[in-house]
Design goal:
Largest sheet: 5 strands, mixed
CATH topology of one domain: Heat Shock Protein 90
Structural class: alpha+beta
Shape: rod-shaped
Helix content: over 70%
Radius of gyration: 51 Å
CATH superfamily of one domain: Histidine kinase-like ATPase, C-terminal domain
CATH architecture of one domain: 2-Layer Sandwich
Strand content: 5-15%
Number of helices: 27
Distance between the termini: 77 Å
Length: 717
Amino acid sequence: MRKDSVPIMVLIFLLFLLRGNYALSQASTDTASINDRNRNLFLEARKNPDLTIMLAHRTLSESRQLQYTRGIADASLALGSAWLARYFNKNDSALFYNMQAYEIYRELADSRGKARACYYLAYVFSIKGQLDESERYASLSLNFFQEAGDNRGAINAYHILSFLAKQQNDLKKAMGLINEAIDLARSTNDTINLADVLNTRGNIYKDMALFKPAIDTYFEALDLWESTGDSTGISIAFGSIGLMYFYQKEWDKALEYCFKKVPISKARGEVYELSKTYNTIAQIHRARTEYDSALHFLNIGLKLNQDMNYSSGIASTCNDIASTYLIIHQLDSAGKYIDRAVAMALESDDPALVEYYVTLGNIHKLKGETSSALKFISEAYKRGREKNLPMIVQDASILLSDIYAGLNRNDLAYKYLKEHQQLKDSISNDGFRKQVTRMEIQYDFDKKQKAAEYTRMEERIMSENRINRQQLYLKGLSLLLLFVALISLLYIRHNRLRARYAQIDLEQRLLRTQMNPHFIFNSLSAVQDLILSGRLQNAGTYLAKIARLMRNILESSREEFIPLVKEIETVKLYLDLQQLRFDEGFEYDISYDNSIDPANISIPPMLTQPCVENSIEHGLLPMKGKGSLLVSYSMNNGLMKLEITDNGIGRKEAALRFAGRNNKRSVSTQITSERIHNFRKTLRNKNISYEITDLYDQDKAVGTRVTIMLPYKKIYV
């Protein structure tokens, strides 16, 4: 375990504690707790294999104590997955735990569990180089995933089967399997897996040297990864695109995409991906004959492989460094690194050892160390033939031919030269067959592209037609809405004019009632009596009040709202004149709340006076004794509340007394009611109201109260 990974593991462990999934102090456990922990362990296995292994052993032990079979199977699967993720660990732990999980899932008849176990076993046997076993378990995995109805699992199974076909150089089969995975991912809208399998199809195109389809496919995968914000996928796509540009010798673009990948891999701590990227960058610099830069990035990659303790990666990078030193004829440095590569390959039984022997033999050859060169190149030649590696045998053959020619062994020199040429021709024929395969796949690709282009064209035409129809509908709808709006405006304007004319009519009718000739005649007669009785000063005062009252009424009739102070003044003038008609007189009081500023509040005019007139004419005038009239203004729920209270004879008695004279409803009462109704309708406020209440004291009428809820406005905001 790396030292710098310990703090990270501790933090992750504390995180599990905070989540409550790994309460180590808890004395008892149950199956639900084990299920939760196994689920989280399985999710963490690839990210934090060392921590997962430690915690999964505890869960496995608890499951065994409870004899909880599913818990044992799930914990074993988590352990198998974690061991598999430990930088391609080749020991038997991954095999043991995944196989154990598989056997238990078989007993439980759990198709999905069997599918996942077989999936990991396929990877285990692939790493061990047992490709037949790997393919068998991958096929089982696919069958079990399909049986369980797990489409995502089936996509992954197709994925590994394609990978195995690629390992066996059957690229056509690999392409067919990965296309099955792509079709399934598209049909289920599985964006994450679709991006993964598209990237793999790009890799297959790359191996076929179909670089344009490869780049197109990588960019399609990149778009999907960017849409989901998958930084790991974005990193992989950048690396793959960079490698494609490298193969096409577009060095600048290749470096651009490789360097785009580096910060993402660093941020995610993806050491393996980072080491691969630095190796690609080094190959680009070497292709540009920038050997110092190539060595710089190869050394960075070497350090990363050492940090991972990835022996195959270390050996491969050492071989690349040695080959670079060989090009610039620094043979001692080349020898130092190739010796290390060979030693590590021997220790880990790395199949790439045969390639390293070729490099080592070539270095000894250039140093003039013929016997050593002959030894290592002959070993490479022998192993190449045993393992059916024609490229290795071809390289070794030409080197052996050169060495024997230098030793004047022309027979052997000719033999190896002839074999080299035969292999070259064979490889060319094989290359021709691969080219035919590539042409077939390219044809399929072009055909699919044309079909896709035709489909896109059809969709575009349909879309344009749909848009045209929608635009036509929108134009028709717009015209209809415009027509409706015009009619509505005319209707609203008509209603407003009707309401305004009705308001004007009501105001004119009210004005006529307030300018009642009978009231004016009575008032002037009272003034005449004052003059005849010699009370000239009083007569002058009342004449001024009559003039002021008439002026206020005429001025108010032209306004929709007037200041409350002016309305109160008009009512006072009217009441003062009415008092002249009473022998005993009557008292009145006009009040308003302290919260009301009468100079800043305006109300509809000529509503108080008609109500006051009714109280005087039908309530106070017929009664014996001194009358009382109270007028008050107050605020109530956003309206002005007007109350007019008298202690007169009441409406019932008044109706009996005036029945013989006039049975018609008071004109002023009717007009006031109509005005209130008009305000309620125009302002759309149902709380605007007009109400008359009879007052009783033990069934005896003691007066009348008129309550009006009026709209009001503030003159100054």
